[in-house]
Amino acid sequence: MSAYIWTGSAWRKVLRKTMWTGSTWKDIKSSHRWTGSAWETIYSTGPQVSAYTTFSKTTGSAVTITLPPANVGDLWVIAMATTSGQMGSTPSGWTKQMGNGAWYGDAYLEVWTRTKVAGDPPTISTSASGWDGNTPAEGVAMTVSNQAGVNASSSILLDSSTTATPHPTPAITTTVAKALLIRMVSTGQLSSAHTWPAGVTPVTTVINGTVSALSVAVQTGGAAGSQAAVNATPSNGSKYSSGTIAIAPR
């Protein structure tokens, strides 16, 4: 959506919206109009995944997660998956939004969030271990910008069948319109990435050799209320855990 200014004789398109902060020009991510009593948003880019990193391991229990670039006030979201293993505790300063990685035997998923503050370290550490101290684990760490925090989190869906297909990501109920819905699936072995339906945009898939995988995708929610479940179609049948988290627009 383009912005315009009145020159005195015609409307002129403004290709970039900026404001002077006193020391630098800063992009304006939303436009407003004055209603007579308050400023009303007429356009916003909405929350978006502006950066992400991935990680995976097949041996040992230690997990080191490199956080993606973020500005102060951005939201970090980490989706971490294990297969036949047990998750470590939620890292200090982070909030567990959902998770079932507390035992052994299936594909598990945990989701943690934290608002970026000045001085945050570039990495965090946790663990994922199996009966013999080894377990496959993979994850995606995301930066969500232009957001107002977590609006809702689903419970985890789990299917232990090694031939399960499709892999549904849960419905979720939001209290705001146009939330960013992040949909995540932890699975056993996949030969290639999940396929998502129209309107759902893949972020990435981490395929951890021949043992496990983690897929993440996003979509923009509709009006406040129930947001329907969405099926991720795997390349082959596999056990899975899935979850959905909603991030409110600023």
Q: Can you tell me about this structure?
A:
The chain has 250 residues and is mostly beta strands. It folds into two domains: 3-44, no CATH class; 48-249, no CATH class. 0% of the residues lie in helices and 55% in strands. It is built from no helices and 24 strands. The protein has strands spanning 3-6, 11-14, 18-20, 25-27, 30-34, 39-44, 48-57, 62-66, 75-83, 86-87, 95-99, 107-115, 123-129, 137-145, 147-153, 157-159, 167-169, 172-174, 180-187, 201-208, 212-220, 225-227, 230-232, 240-249. Strand 5 (30-34) and strand 6 (39-44) form a beta hairpin. The radius of gyration is 20 Å and the shape is globular. The mean pLDDT is 87. This is Minor tail protein.
Give me the secondary-structure topology:
Blueprint: E1 3-6, E2 11-14, E3 18-20, E4 25-27, E5 30-34, E6 39-44, E7 48-57, E8 62-66, E9 75-83, E10 86-87, E11 95-99, E12 107-115, E13 123-129, E14 137-145, E15 147-153, E16 157-159, E17 167-169, E18 172-174, E19 180-187, E20 201-208, E21 212-220, E22 225-227, E23 230-232, E24 240-249
Antiparallel strand pairs: 1-2, 3-4, 5-6, 7-14, 8-13, 9-12, 9-14, 10-13, 11-12, 15-24, 16-24, 17-23, 18-22, 19-21, 19-24, 20-21
Protein name: Minor tail protein
Task: Give a summary of the structure in a few sentences.
With 250 residues, the chain is an all-beta fold.
Q: Please mark out the parts with pLDDT under 50 across 5 or more consecutive residues, or reply none.
A: none
The overall strand count is 24
The tally of structural domains comes to 2
> Number of helical runs?
0
Q: What is the quaternary state of this protein?
A: single chain
Determine the strand fraction and express it as a percent band: over 45%
Derived from helix and strand composition plus strand pairing, the structural class reads mainly beta
Q: Work out the radius of gyration.
A: 20 Å
Average pLDDT, to the nearest integer?
Answer: 87
Largest sheet: 6 strands, antiparallel
Organism: Rhodococcus baikonurensis
Protein name: Minor tail protein
